[in-house]
Amino acid sequence: MRLKQSELRITSEWEEKGFELPKFNRDKMIEQTLKNPEWIHFGAGNIFRAFPAAVCQELLNKGILKSGIIVAEGFDYEIIEKSYRTYDNLSLLVTLKPDGNLAKKVVGSVAESLCMDTENKTDWNRLTKIFKNPGLKIVSFTITEKGYSLKNDKQEFIPSVLEDFKHDPAQAVSYIGKLTALLYERYLADRLPLTLVSMDNCSHNGTRLFEAVTTFADKWVENGMVEEGFNNYVRENISYPWSMIDKITPRPSESVIHMLEAVGFEDTSVVITAKNTYVAPFVNAEEPQYLVIEDNFKNGRLPLEQGGIIFTNKEIVDKVEKMKVCTCLNPLHTSLAIFGCLLSYDKISDEMKDKELSALINKIGYVEGMPVVSNPGIINPEAFLKEVLSVRFPNPFMPDTPQRIACDTSQKLAIRFGETMKAYIENEHLNVENLTFIPLVLAGWLRYLCGIDDQGKPFTYSPDPMLSDLTPVMEQIKLGDKEGIHEIVKGILSNKSIFGIDLYEAGLGYKVESFFTELIQGPGAVRNTLKKYLD
Protein backbone atom coordinates (compact mmCIF):
# COMPACT_ATOMS: atom_id res chain seq x y z
CA MET A 1 0.00 0.00 0.00
CA ARG A 2 1.42 3.35 -1.09
CA LEU A 3 0.27 6.84 -0.13
CA LYS A 4 -1.03 7.87 -3.54
CA GLN A 5 -4.47 9.08 -4.55
CA SER A 6 -4.73 6.37 -7.23
CA GLU A 7 -4.06 3.63 -4.66
CA LEU A 8 -6.79 4.88 -2.30
CA ARG A 9 -9.38 3.88 -4.87
CA ILE A 10 -8.82 0.25 -3.83
CA THR A 11 -10.64 0.94 -0.56
CA SER A 12 -11.18 -2.65 0.55
CA GLU A 13 -7.45 -3.39 0.89
CA TRP A 14 -6.89 -0.36 3.11
CA GLU A 15 -9.98 -0.91 5.25
CA GLU A 16 -9.15 -4.57 5.80
CA LYS A 17 -5.84 -3.45 7.29
CA GLY A 18 -7.58 -1.00 9.62
CA PHE A 19 -6.93 2.26 7.76
CA GLU A 20 -9.62 4.94 7.82
CA LEU A 21 -9.89 6.69 4.45
CA PRO A 22 -11.35 10.10 3.51
CA LYS A 23 -15.12 9.82 3.11
CA PHE A 24 -15.53 12.72 0.69
CA ASN A 25 -14.87 13.19 -3.00
CA ARG A 26 -11.31 14.46 -2.88
CA ASP A 27 -11.21 15.59 -6.51
CA LYS A 28 -14.23 17.84 -5.97
CA MET A 29 -12.75 19.14 -2.70
CA ILE A 30 -9.52 20.09 -4.44
CA GLU A 31 -11.41 21.78 -7.29
CA GLN A 32 -13.53 23.78 -4.84
CA THR A 33 -10.52 24.77 -2.72
CA LEU A 34 -8.43 25.95 -5.65
CA LYS A 35 -11.34 27.99 -6.97
CA ASN A 36 -12.42 29.54 -3.69
CA PRO A 37 -9.87 29.03 -0.89
CA GLU A 38 -11.14 29.68 2.64
CA TRP A 39 -8.27 28.41 4.78
CA ILE A 40 -4.50 28.55 4.29
CA HIS A 41 -2.04 27.32 6.88
CA PHE A 42 1.63 28.26 7.26
CA GLY A 43 3.93 25.68 8.83
CA ALA A 44 3.74 22.26 7.19
CA GLY A 45 5.03 20.24 10.14
CA ASN A 46 3.63 17.42 12.23
CA ILE A 47 1.30 19.36 14.51
CA PHE A 48 -0.52 20.77 11.47
CA ARG A 49 -1.02 17.36 9.86
CA ALA A 50 -2.02 15.70 13.14
CA PHE A 51 -4.49 18.33 14.32
CA PRO A 52 -5.86 21.15 12.09
CA ALA A 53 -5.69 19.04 8.93
CA ALA A 54 -7.40 16.13 10.69
CA VAL A 55 -10.15 18.41 12.05
CA CYS A 56 -10.70 19.75 8.53
CA GLN A 57 -10.99 16.17 7.27
CA GLU A 58 -13.62 15.37 9.89
CA LEU A 59 -15.71 18.33 8.74
CA LEU A 60 -15.27 17.35 5.09
CA ASN A 61 -16.37 13.82 5.94
CA LYS A 62 -19.54 15.18 7.54
CA GLY A 63 -20.26 17.51 4.61
CA ILE A 64 -19.95 20.56 6.87
CA LEU A 65 -17.06 21.90 4.78
CA LYS A 66 -16.76 21.69 1.00
CA SER A 67 -13.26 23.12 0.66
CA GLY A 68 -10.09 21.91 2.37
CA ILE A 69 -6.82 23.53 3.40
CA ILE A 70 -3.93 24.93 1.42
CA VAL A 71 -0.63 24.51 3.25
CA ALA A 72 2.48 26.64 2.76
CA GLU A 73 5.97 26.30 4.21
CA GLY A 74 8.09 29.39 4.71
CA PHE A 75 11.20 28.03 6.42
CA ASP A 76 12.14 24.54 5.20
CA TYR A 77 11.01 24.23 1.60
CA GLU A 78 12.17 20.61 1.34
CA ILE A 79 9.15 19.59 3.44
CA ILE A 80 6.79 20.49 0.62
CA GLU A 81 8.43 18.26 -1.96
CA LYS A 82 9.47 15.39 0.30
CA SER A 83 6.49 15.22 2.64
CA TYR A 84 3.58 16.53 0.55
CA ARG A 85 3.91 16.57 -3.23
CA THR A 86 5.61 13.17 -3.39
CA TYR A 87 2.49 11.72 -1.74
CA ASP A 88 -0.23 13.71 -3.56
CA ASN A 89 -0.58 15.92 -0.46
CA LEU A 90 -1.83 12.93 1.53
CA SER A 91 -0.50 11.95 4.93
CA LEU A 92 -1.08 9.18 7.42
CA LEU A 93 -2.04 10.07 10.99
CA VAL A 94 -1.09 7.32 13.43
CA THR A 95 -2.70 7.81 16.82
CA LEU A 96 -0.81 6.02 19.59
CA LYS A 97 -3.23 4.71 22.20
CA PRO A 98 -2.11 3.76 25.73
CA ASP A 99 -3.20 0.14 25.20
CA GLY A 100 -0.78 -0.24 22.30
CA ASN A 101 -3.35 -0.06 19.53
CA LEU A 102 -2.83 2.22 16.54
CA ALA A 103 -5.58 4.23 14.91
CA LYS A 104 -4.51 4.75 11.29
CA LYS A 105 -6.15 7.56 9.33
CA VAL A 106 -5.26 8.74 5.83
CA VAL A 107 -5.68 12.51 5.90
CA GLY A 108 -6.63 14.01 2.54
CA SER A 109 -7.87 17.47 3.49
CA VAL A 110 -4.83 19.27 2.04
CA ALA A 111 -5.73 20.46 -1.46
CA GLU A 112 -2.48 22.18 -2.37
CA SER A 113 1.02 22.64 -0.96
CA LEU A 114 3.23 25.66 -1.68
CA CYS A 115 6.63 27.13 -0.87
CA MET A 116 6.41 30.57 0.71
CA ASP A 117 9.42 31.77 -1.25
CA THR A 118 9.53 35.04 -3.18
CA GLU A 119 12.17 33.57 -5.50
CA ASN A 120 9.85 30.69 -6.44
CA LYS A 121 7.70 32.75 -8.81
CA THR A 122 5.16 30.02 -9.53
CA ASP A 123 4.35 29.38 -5.87
CA TRP A 124 4.63 33.03 -4.87
CA ASN A 125 2.22 34.14 -7.61
CA ARG A 126 -0.19 31.43 -6.47
CA LEU A 127 0.05 32.68 -2.87
CA THR A 128 -0.68 36.26 -3.91
CA LYS A 129 -3.72 35.05 -5.84
CA ILE A 130 -4.97 33.18 -2.75
CA PHE A 131 -4.55 36.27 -0.58
CA LYS A 132 -6.51 38.39 -3.05
CA ASN A 133 -9.49 36.03 -2.90
CA PRO A 134 -12.43 37.67 -1.05
CA GLY A 135 -13.54 34.28 0.32
CA LEU A 136 -10.34 33.67 2.29
CA LYS A 137 -11.41 33.53 5.95
CA ILE A 138 -8.53 32.20 8.00
CA VAL A 139 -4.76 32.13 7.81
CA SER A 140 -3.38 29.88 10.55
CA PHE A 141 0.17 29.24 11.72
CA THR A 142 2.31 26.61 13.40
CA ILE A 143 5.73 28.14 12.72
CA THR A 144 7.18 27.79 16.27
CA GLU A 145 7.68 30.65 18.69
CA LYS A 146 10.89 31.67 16.94
CA GLY A 147 8.97 32.28 13.72
CA TYR A 148 7.49 35.51 15.11
CA SER A 149 10.81 36.95 16.27
CA LEU A 150 12.16 39.97 14.42
CA LYS A 151 15.00 40.58 16.88
CA ASN A 152 17.89 38.57 18.32
CA ASP A 153 18.72 38.02 21.99
CA LYS A 154 20.29 41.50 22.14
CA GLN A 155 17.00 43.04 20.97
CA GLU A 156 18.52 44.02 17.63
CA PHE A 157 16.64 43.43 14.38
CA ILE A 158 18.05 40.36 12.66
CA PRO A 159 19.84 41.04 9.34
CA SER A 160 17.18 39.54 7.05
CA VAL A 161 14.50 41.67 8.70
CA LEU A 162 16.58 44.84 8.41
CA GLU A 163 17.11 44.15 4.72
CA ASP A 164 13.40 43.51 4.17
CA PHE A 165 12.54 46.89 5.74
CA LYS A 166 14.50 48.60 2.95
CA HIS A 167 13.18 46.74 -0.07
CA ASP A 168 10.01 46.14 -2.05
CA PRO A 169 7.69 43.70 -0.18
CA ALA A 170 7.74 41.32 -3.16
CA GLN A 171 11.45 40.73 -2.45
CA ALA A 172 10.99 39.79 1.22
CA VAL A 173 13.02 36.87 2.59
CA SER A 174 12.16 36.83 6.32
CA TYR A 175 9.10 34.84 7.43
CA ILE A 176 7.05 37.75 8.73
CA GLY A 177 8.28 39.92 5.88
CA LYS A 178 6.85 37.45 3.37
CA LEU A 179 3.59 37.20 5.31
CA THR A 180 3.22 40.99 5.48
CA ALA A 181 3.97 41.20 1.75
CA LEU A 182 1.03 38.87 1.10
CA LEU A 183 -1.16 40.98 3.36
CA TYR A 184 -0.18 43.99 1.26
CA GLU A 185 -1.51 42.19 -1.80
CA ARG A 186 -4.82 41.73 0.05
CA TYR A 187 -4.78 45.40 1.03
CA LEU A 188 -4.38 46.37 -2.63
CA ALA A 189 -7.34 44.09 -3.46
CA ASP A 190 -9.84 46.53 -1.96
CA ARG A 191 -8.61 46.29 1.67
CA LEU A 192 -10.24 42.89 2.18
CA PRO A 193 -10.58 41.79 5.84
CA LEU A 194 -8.88 38.67 7.18
CA THR A 195 -8.08 36.73 10.37
CA LEU A 196 -4.61 35.47 11.27
CA VAL A 197 -4.67 32.69 13.88
CA SER A 198 -1.41 31.69 15.50
CA MET A 199 -1.74 28.12 16.75
CA ASP A 200 1.76 28.06 18.17
CA ASN A 201 2.44 27.04 21.74
CA CYS A 202 3.52 30.42 23.07
CA SER A 203 1.88 32.87 25.44
CA HIS A 204 -0.45 35.46 23.89
CA ASN A 205 0.48 34.21 20.44
CA GLY A 206 -1.97 36.50 18.65
CA THR A 207 -0.31 39.55 20.16
CA ARG A 208 3.11 38.26 19.11
CA LEU A 209 1.87 37.95 15.55
CA PHE A 210 0.17 41.38 15.66
CA GLU A 211 3.34 43.08 16.89
CA ALA A 212 5.48 41.43 14.21
CA VAL A 213 3.13 42.30 11.32
CA THR A 214 2.47 45.87 12.43
CA THR A 215 6.20 46.48 12.90
CA PHE A 216 6.78 45.49 9.29
CA ALA A 217 3.87 47.56 8.03
CA ASP A 218 5.07 50.63 9.95
CA LYS A 219 8.63 50.28 8.64
CA TRP A 220 7.47 49.87 5.06
CA VAL A 221 5.21 52.91 5.28
CA GLU A 222 8.01 54.91 6.93
CA ASN A 223 10.45 53.88 4.18
CA GLY A 224 7.99 54.56 1.35
CA MET A 225 7.79 50.91 0.29
CA VAL A 226 3.97 50.72 0.56
CA GLU A 227 0.96 53.04 0.52
CA GLU A 228 0.27 55.20 3.58
CA GLY A 229 -2.89 53.36 4.63
CA PHE A 230 -1.36 49.92 4.90
CA ASN A 231 -0.27 50.26 8.53
CA ASN A 232 -3.84 51.17 9.51
CA TYR A 233 -5.21 48.28 7.45
CA VAL A 234 -3.22 45.64 9.34
CA ARG A 235 -4.57 47.04 12.60
CA GLU A 236 -8.20 47.62 11.66
CA ASN A 237 -9.09 45.10 8.95
CA ILE A 238 -7.15 42.11 10.28
CA SER A 239 -7.70 40.30 13.57
CA TYR A 240 -5.13 38.32 15.54
CA PRO A 241 -7.00 36.07 17.99
CA TRP A 242 -5.19 34.33 20.83
CA SER A 243 -5.24 30.54 20.97
CA MET A 244 -4.06 27.61 23.08
CA ILE A 245 -3.07 24.36 21.41
CA ASP A 246 -2.13 21.10 23.09
CA LYS A 247 -1.20 17.86 21.35
CA ILE A 248 2.08 15.96 21.50
CA THR A 249 3.48 14.95 18.09
CA PRO A 250 6.98 13.47 18.47
CA ARG A 251 9.39 12.67 15.66
CA PRO A 252 8.57 9.60 13.53
CA SER A 253 9.02 6.50 15.67
CA GLU A 254 10.91 3.35 14.66
CA SER A 255 8.32 1.22 16.47
CA VAL A 256 5.52 2.83 14.46
CA ILE A 257 7.44 2.21 11.23
CA HIS A 258 7.72 -1.50 12.08
CA MET A 259 4.01 -1.76 12.91
CA LEU A 260 3.03 -0.03 9.66
CA GLU A 261 5.32 -2.19 7.57
CA ALA A 262 3.86 -5.29 9.22
CA VAL A 263 0.42 -4.49 7.76
CA GLY A 264 1.76 -3.70 4.29
CA PHE A 265 2.14 0.08 4.38
CA GLU A 266 5.22 0.85 2.31
CA ASP A 267 5.75 4.64 2.60
CA THR A 268 7.62 4.74 5.90
CA SER A 269 10.94 6.32 4.96
CA VAL A 270 12.06 9.18 7.21
CA VAL A 271 14.02 12.03 5.63
CA ILE A 272 16.16 14.56 7.50
CA THR A 273 16.21 17.81 5.52
CA ALA A 274 19.18 20.13 5.17
CA LYS A 275 17.61 22.26 7.90
CA ASN A 276 17.42 19.22 10.20
CA THR A 277 13.66 18.70 9.96
CA TYR A 278 12.52 15.11 10.36
CA VAL A 279 9.82 14.41 7.77
CA ALA A 280 7.92 11.28 6.86
CA PRO A 281 4.68 10.41 5.07
CA PHE A 282 3.15 9.65 8.46
CA VAL A 283 2.76 11.48 11.76
CA ASN A 284 2.63 9.66 15.10
CA ALA A 285 0.70 11.51 17.79
CA GLU A 286 -1.11 11.06 21.06
CA GLU A 287 -4.92 10.93 21.15
CA PRO A 288 -5.80 13.84 23.51
CA GLN A 289 -5.92 17.24 21.85
CA TYR A 290 -7.13 20.73 22.72
CA LEU A 291 -7.43 23.87 20.63
CA VAL A 292 -9.11 26.93 22.11
CA ILE A 293 -9.39 30.06 19.94
CA GLU A 294 -10.53 33.59 20.74
CA ASP A 295 -13.74 34.24 18.78
CA ASN A 296 -12.51 37.32 16.93
CA PHE A 297 -12.87 36.90 13.16
CA LYS A 298 -13.02 39.68 10.56
CA ASN A 299 -14.23 37.83 7.45
CA GLY A 300 -16.49 35.19 8.95
CA ARG A 301 -15.19 31.97 10.45
CA LEU A 302 -15.31 28.31 9.60
CA PRO A 303 -17.50 26.06 11.82
CA LEU A 304 -14.49 24.40 13.42
CA GLU A 305 -16.35 23.97 16.70
CA GLN A 306 -18.11 21.05 15.02
CA GLY A 307 -14.71 19.36 14.90
CA GLY A 308 -13.98 19.85 18.59
CA ILE A 309 -12.23 23.22 18.49
CA ILE A 310 -13.47 25.61 21.18
CA PHE A 311 -14.25 29.28 20.47
CA THR A 312 -14.42 31.61 23.44
CA ASN A 313 -13.30 35.06 24.60
CA LYS A 314 -9.74 36.27 25.07
CA GLU A 315 -9.85 36.11 28.87
CA ILE A 316 -10.79 32.43 28.86
CA VAL A 317 -8.13 31.59 26.26
CA ASP A 318 -5.63 33.24 28.59
CA LYS A 319 -6.83 31.15 31.53
CA VAL A 320 -6.69 27.92 29.53
CA GLU A 321 -3.16 28.71 28.43
CA LYS A 322 -2.03 29.53 31.96
CA MET A 323 -3.68 26.37 33.30
CA LYS A 324 -1.71 24.23 30.83
CA VAL A 325 1.57 26.12 30.66
CA CYS A 326 1.91 27.23 34.29
CA THR A 327 0.38 24.34 36.20
CA CYS A 328 -1.06 21.24 34.63
CA LEU A 329 1.31 20.15 31.88
CA ASN A 330 4.37 22.17 30.88
CA PRO A 331 5.99 22.47 34.35
CA LEU A 332 5.61 18.72 34.79
CA HIS A 333 7.15 18.07 31.38
CA THR A 334 10.13 20.29 32.19
CA SER A 335 10.58 18.59 35.57
CA LEU A 336 10.72 15.18 33.89
CA ALA A 337 13.06 16.54 31.21
CA ILE A 338 15.60 17.89 33.70
CA PHE A 339 15.72 14.85 35.95
CA GLY A 340 15.30 12.46 33.03
CA CYS A 341 18.54 13.75 31.52
CA LEU A 342 20.33 13.50 34.86
CA LEU A 343 19.08 9.96 35.46
CA SER A 344 19.79 8.79 31.88
CA TYR A 345 16.21 8.15 30.80
CA ASP A 346 15.36 8.29 27.11
CA LYS A 347 11.56 8.08 27.28
CA ILE A 348 9.10 10.23 29.20
CA SER A 349 6.81 7.22 29.66
CA ASP A 350 9.59 5.27 31.40
CA GLU A 351 10.07 8.13 33.84
CA MET A 352 6.44 7.75 34.88
CA LYS A 353 7.33 4.30 36.24
CA ASP A 354 9.98 5.90 38.45
CA LYS A 355 8.59 6.19 41.98
CA GLU A 356 10.34 9.44 42.86
CA LEU A 357 9.83 11.20 39.52
CA SER A 358 6.15 10.27 39.41
CA ALA A 359 5.76 11.54 42.97
CA LEU A 360 7.61 14.75 42.10
CA ILE A 361 5.30 15.80 39.28
CA ASN A 362 2.21 14.75 41.24
CA LYS A 363 3.38 17.06 44.06
CA ILE A 364 4.08 19.94 41.70
CA GLY A 365 0.71 19.55 39.99
CA TYR A 366 -1.68 18.74 42.81
CA VAL A 367 0.06 20.17 45.90
CA GLU A 368 1.88 23.28 44.67
CA GLY A 369 0.15 24.15 41.41
CA MET A 370 -3.52 23.50 42.03
CA PRO A 371 -3.94 26.11 44.83
CA VAL A 372 -3.16 28.88 42.33
CA VAL A 373 -4.39 27.26 39.11
CA SER A 374 -6.13 29.46 36.55
CA ASN A 375 -9.55 27.79 36.17
CA PRO A 376 -10.96 28.59 32.71
CA GLY A 377 -14.32 26.98 33.36
CA ILE A 378 -14.52 25.35 29.91
CA ILE A 379 -11.87 22.75 30.85
CA ASN A 380 -11.66 21.31 34.36
CA PRO A 381 -8.07 21.71 35.66
CA GLU A 382 -8.17 18.63 37.88
CA ALA A 383 -9.54 16.45 35.07
CA PHE A 384 -6.92 17.87 32.68
CA LEU A 385 -4.12 17.19 35.18
CA LYS A 386 -5.40 13.68 35.86
CA GLU A 387 -5.38 12.92 32.11
CA VAL A 388 -1.80 14.19 31.84
CA LEU A 389 -0.58 12.10 34.75
CA SER A 390 -2.55 8.91 34.16
CA VAL A 391 -2.97 8.77 30.37
CA ARG A 392 -0.69 11.10 28.44
CA PHE A 393 2.73 10.95 30.09
CA PRO A 394 2.61 7.19 30.92
CA ASN A 395 1.67 6.21 27.34
CA PRO A 396 4.50 3.75 26.50
CA PHE A 397 3.82 4.09 22.79
CA MET A 398 4.58 7.81 22.71
CA PRO A 399 8.28 8.01 21.77
CA ASP A 400 8.86 11.36 23.47
CA THR A 401 12.18 12.00 25.17
CA PRO A 402 13.37 14.15 28.09
CA GLN A 403 16.15 15.39 25.81
CA ARG A 404 13.60 16.89 23.38
CA ILE A 405 11.59 18.49 26.16
CA ALA A 406 14.79 19.91 27.71
CA CYS A 407 15.42 22.11 24.65
CA ASP A 408 15.42 25.85 25.45
CA THR A 409 14.73 25.30 29.16
CA SER A 410 16.17 28.71 30.07
CA GLN A 411 13.44 30.29 27.95
CA LYS A 412 10.67 28.29 29.62
CA LEU A 413 11.27 28.54 33.37
CA ALA A 414 9.76 32.01 33.82
CA ILE A 415 6.39 30.99 32.46
CA ARG A 416 6.35 27.36 33.61
CA PHE A 417 7.39 28.01 37.20
CA GLY A 418 7.75 31.76 37.64
CA GLU A 419 4.03 32.46 37.29
CA THR A 420 3.16 29.99 40.05
CA MET A 421 5.78 31.52 42.37
CA LYS A 422 4.41 35.00 41.62
CA ALA A 423 0.88 33.79 42.38
CA TYR A 424 2.05 32.55 45.80
CA ILE A 425 3.70 35.91 46.49
CA GLU A 426 0.55 37.80 45.54
CA ASN A 427 -1.84 35.54 47.52
CA GLU A 428 -2.15 36.66 51.14
CA HIS A 429 -3.29 33.18 52.17
CA LEU A 430 -0.22 31.41 50.77
CA ASN A 431 3.47 31.58 51.60
CA VAL A 432 5.89 31.21 48.70
CA GLU A 433 8.60 30.05 51.12
CA ASN A 434 6.55 26.90 51.78
CA LEU A 435 7.18 25.70 48.23
CA THR A 436 9.45 22.65 48.14
CA PHE A 437 9.13 20.77 44.88
CA ILE A 438 9.34 23.68 42.43
CA PRO A 439 12.60 24.87 44.10
CA LEU A 440 13.84 21.27 43.90
CA VAL A 441 13.30 21.30 40.11
CA LEU A 442 15.09 24.64 39.78
CA ALA A 443 18.00 23.17 41.73
CA GLY A 444 17.84 20.18 39.39
CA TRP A 445 18.24 22.55 36.44
CA LEU A 446 21.41 24.00 38.00
CA ARG A 447 22.61 20.43 38.43
CA TYR A 448 21.78 19.77 34.75
CA LEU A 449 23.90 22.77 33.75
CA CYS A 450 26.92 21.06 35.32
CA GLY A 451 26.80 18.63 32.37
CA ILE A 452 27.38 15.52 34.52
CA ASP A 453 24.71 12.86 35.02
CA ASP A 454 23.98 11.10 38.31
CA GLN A 455 26.57 8.43 37.53
CA GLY A 456 29.24 11.10 37.22
CA LYS A 457 29.42 10.84 33.42
CA PRO A 458 29.21 13.77 30.96
CA PHE A 459 26.05 14.01 28.83
CA THR A 460 25.10 16.07 25.79
CA TYR A 461 23.08 19.20 26.53
CA SER A 462 19.87 19.85 24.64
CA PRO A 463 19.99 23.05 22.54
CA ASP A 464 19.42 26.23 24.56
CA PRO A 465 20.31 29.83 23.59
CA MET A 466 21.75 30.56 27.05
CA LEU A 467 24.09 27.57 27.35
CA SER A 468 27.12 29.60 26.30
CA ASP A 469 26.46 32.02 29.19
CA LEU A 470 25.41 29.52 31.85
CA THR A 471 27.60 26.45 31.46
CA PRO A 472 30.94 28.25 32.00
CA VAL A 473 29.55 29.49 35.33
CA MET A 474 28.34 26.06 36.45
CA GLU A 475 31.49 24.27 35.30
CA GLN A 476 33.28 25.97 38.19
CA ILE A 477 31.42 23.59 40.50
CA LYS A 478 32.60 20.03 40.95
CA LEU A 479 30.83 17.02 42.44
CA GLY A 480 31.32 17.05 46.18
CA ASP A 481 31.69 20.84 46.53
CA LYS A 482 30.01 22.42 49.55
CA GLU A 483 31.74 25.78 49.85
CA GLY A 484 31.50 28.85 47.62
CA ILE A 485 28.26 27.76 45.97
CA HIS A 486 26.40 31.01 46.68
CA GLU A 487 28.95 33.25 44.99
CA ILE A 488 28.84 31.13 41.83
CA VAL A 489 25.08 30.65 41.43
CA LYS A 490 23.71 33.93 42.82
CA GLY A 491 23.92 35.67 39.43
CA ILE A 492 21.77 32.96 37.88
CA LEU A 493 19.21 32.60 40.67
CA SER A 494 18.67 36.37 40.85
CA ASN A 495 18.14 36.67 37.09
CA LYS A 496 14.52 37.76 36.55
CA SER A 497 14.74 37.13 32.81
CA ILE A 498 15.26 33.42 33.55
CA PHE A 499 12.84 32.81 36.42
CA GLY A 500 10.44 35.75 36.13
CA ILE A 501 11.46 36.78 39.64
CA ASP A 502 14.60 37.23 41.72
CA LEU A 503 14.56 33.99 43.72
CA TYR A 504 16.38 35.61 46.65
CA GLU A 505 13.87 38.45 46.86
CA ALA A 506 11.13 35.82 46.83
CA GLY A 507 12.73 33.96 49.74
CA LEU A 508 13.58 30.87 47.66
CA GLY A 509 17.15 31.48 46.50
CA TYR A 510 18.89 29.90 49.49
CA LYS A 511 16.47 26.96 49.44
CA VAL A 512 17.39 26.27 45.80
CA GLU A 513 21.08 26.55 46.75
CA SER A 514 20.58 24.05 49.57
CA PHE A 515 18.86 21.52 47.31
CA PHE A 516 21.54 22.03 44.65
CA THR A 517 24.31 21.38 47.18
CA GLU A 518 22.68 18.07 48.05
CA LEU A 519 22.34 17.17 44.36
CA ILE A 520 26.08 17.55 43.69
CA GLN A 521 27.42 15.43 46.54
CA GLY A 522 28.89 12.78 44.27
CA PRO A 523 27.48 10.02 42.05
CA GLY A 524 24.03 8.92 43.17
CA ALA A 525 23.30 12.22 44.92
CA VAL A 526 20.46 13.11 42.54
CA ARG A 527 18.65 9.88 43.29
CA ASN A 528 19.34 10.14 47.02
CA THR A 529 18.02 13.71 47.16
CA LEU A 530 14.83 12.75 45.32
CA LYS A 531 14.31 9.85 47.72
CA LYS A 532 14.89 12.11 50.73
CA TYR A 533 12.10 14.51 49.78
CA LEU A 534 9.69 12.22 47.92
CA ASP A 535 9.71 8.82 49.62
Description:
The chain is an alpha/beta fold. It has 2 domains: 5-312, Rossmann fold, CATH 3.40.50.720; 315-534, N-(1-d-carboxylethyl)-l-norvaline Dehydrogenase, domain 2 (Orthogonal Bundle). The protein has 25 helices and 15 strands. The strands form 4 sheets. The protein has a 6-stranded parallel β-sheet with strand order 6-3-2-7-8-9, sandwiched between helices. Helix 9 packs across helix 10 (205-222) and helix 14 (330-342) crosses helix 20. It is globular, with a radius of gyration of 24 Å. The termini are far apart.
Give the topology.
Layout: H1 5-8, H2 11-16, E1 19-20, H3 26-35, E2 39-42, H4 46-50, H5 52-61, E3 69-73, H6 78-84, E4 91-96, E5 102-107, E6 110-115, H7 121-132, E7 138-141, H8 159-166, H9 175-188, E8 194-198, H10 205-222, H11 230-236, E9 238-239, E10 243-246, H12 254-262, E11 271-272, E12 278-279, E13 282-286, E14 290-294, E15 310-312, H13 314-328, H14 330-342, H15 348-351, H16 355-369, H17 381-392, H18 402-405, H19 409-426, H20 437-449, H21 467-474, H22 485-493, H23 496-499, H24 509-519, H25 525-534
Protein traits:
alpha/beta; Rossmann fold; N-(1-d-carboxylethyl)-l-norvaline Dehydrogenase, domain 2; 6-stranded parallel β-sheet; 4-stranded mixed β-sheet; 25 helices
Query: Quick one: overall form?
Result: globular
Radius of gyration using CA atoms only = 24 Å
Residue windows where pLDDT falls under 50 for at least 5 positions: none
Kindly state the mean pLDDT as a whole number?
A: 95
- Domain unit count: 2
**What is the level 1 CATH name of the largest domain?**
Alpha Beta
**Share of helix among residues?**
40-55%
Biggest sheet details:
6 strands, parallel
CATH superfamily of the largest domain: NAD(P)-binding Rossmann-like Domain
Which fold name is given in CATH as the topology of the largest domain?
Rossmann fold
State the oligomer. single chain
**What is the tally of helical segments?**
25
In CATH, the architecture of the largest domain is 3-Layer(aba) Sandwich
**Portion in beta strands:** 5-15%
Helix/sheet category: alpha/beta
